[in-house]
Amino acid sequence: MIDTEVKIDIQLTENYRLSEIEINNVPFGRVFSDHMFIAEYDSNGWGNAKIIPHQRLLVNPASHGLNYGQSLFEGMKAYKGQNGEPQLFRPLDNHKRLCKTAKRMCMPEIPEELFMSALNELVGLDRDWIPDQEGSALYLRPLYFADDDYIGVKASNKFKFIIITCPVGPYYAEPVNVLVSIKYIRACKGGMGQYKAAGNYAPTLLPAKEANEKGYHNMLWMNAENPKLLEEIGTMNVFVVIGDEVITPILNGNILEGITRNSILQLLKDRDYNVSERELSIDEVAEAYHNGNLKEAFGAGTAASITHIAKIGYNGKDIILPPIEDRPISNMLADVLCKIKTSREPDPHGWVYKIPL
Ligand SMILES: Cc1ncc(COP(=O)(O)O)c(C=O)c1O
Q1: Which of 167, 175, 269, 357 is the most buried (most CB within 10 A)?
Q2: Which stretches does DSSP call E strand in the chain?
Q3: What confidence score (pLDDT) does residue 2 get?
Q4: Model confidence pLDDT, tens digit, residues 144-190
């Protein structure tokens, strides 16, 4: 039972923009819906919760969020159910992960009621912004950062929690090429890899740019201590199918515990697939490729859904994956996940959350 009793002041926009937008054909992350949610934390706790027209913020340049990266976020999507009603996928898991990251970053937890009330009000209000084309959704970006008027490096006392939303299509327009390189690392033992800290992402931009220049969309990150072991892709968890075994790297503190990853593991177990969370070496992947046993590889995430991997660059050569139409497991998963999220398939695990209207 989700208790969502929080007082939110609502200031409606005077400039509704939906009619100007081709909702099923927008670039990812650039077009924002009419409203946003904002709440503030100070020595009195959480307050000043409101929905306002989407707008720029006034932020003190001393903000710890800006100066020291005391900032975190989540990524979620709203979908339309069978009667067009707005619904979310496993929002409480996003809340749990947000609180876990907040704790590590010395930020107060956001109460579940505040998080859920904000989503209910905002998504309910801007529900017409949810695209209905398959593969499209309303992307939700909860953002939480320190906003002290003090420049020393110490725990902050003031924070802002914001949710903005934008209609999106697929994050990757095509199957991706990923590059294995140990020139850079994303995470290491005792570090921040398992958290959704804003600071995890900027350091991946230069490696991704260098990978782009070589014809790859993104990096396939390897373990810092044992650089043969796969970890994840910058925006997705990774799965590889070798023979009949579906493998994803085990959560080791370096890898973000993806909600899509967890859902996929459950769907595969429900269907009696041979599924493993374990260490996976790039040499094992390369050997399977040479033996004809490498069947599928894909990334999994909220923004990216299921993204097929076309090739994996490793040691100056490419591991080429089979054609997309020959990948029954990832195609099945993409289909089932999409149908559960839009209530076109039963939801045996209670993952779908309907926004109360
Ligand atoms: C680094 C990283 N790994 C994995 C994921 C997938 O997580 P989820 O399925 O919860 O979206 C994301 C998605 O945001 C990510 O940024």
Answers
A1: 167
A2: 9-10, 35-42, 45-53, 71-73, 76-80, 86-89, 137-146, 159-168, 176-180, 218-222, 230-233, 236-242, 245-249, 274-278, 294-301, 305-314, 317-320, 352-354
A3: 46
A4: 999 998 899 998 999 999 999 999 998 988 999 999 988 999 999 99
Per residue in 37-89, pLDDT (tens digit) is 999 999 999 999 999 999 999 999 999 999 999 999 999 999 999 999 999 99
CATH number of the CATH domain containing 77: 3.30.470.10
Ligand 1 center from residue 10 Cα (angstroms): 31
Question: Are 165 and 180 members of one domain?
Answer: no
Number of domains in the chain: 2
Task: Specify the amino acid at residue 295.
Answer: K
> Is residue 1 predicted with pLDDT exceeding 60?
no
Residue 235 lies in domain: 176-341
Measured in Å, how far apart are the chain's first and last C-alpha atoms? 17
DSSP string, 126-180: TGGGS--STT-EEEEEEEEEE--S--SSS--S-EEEEEEEEEE--SSSS-EEEEE
Look at ligand 1, atom 6, and give the residue with the nearest C-alpha: 301
Rounded CA separation 320/294 (Å):
9
Give me ligand 1 centre to Cα 258, in Å: 5
Cα 7 to averaged position of ligand 1 atoms, centre (Å): 31
Write the pLDDT tens digit of every residue in 85-98. Answer: 999 999 999 999 99
- Residue 350 belongs to a domain: no
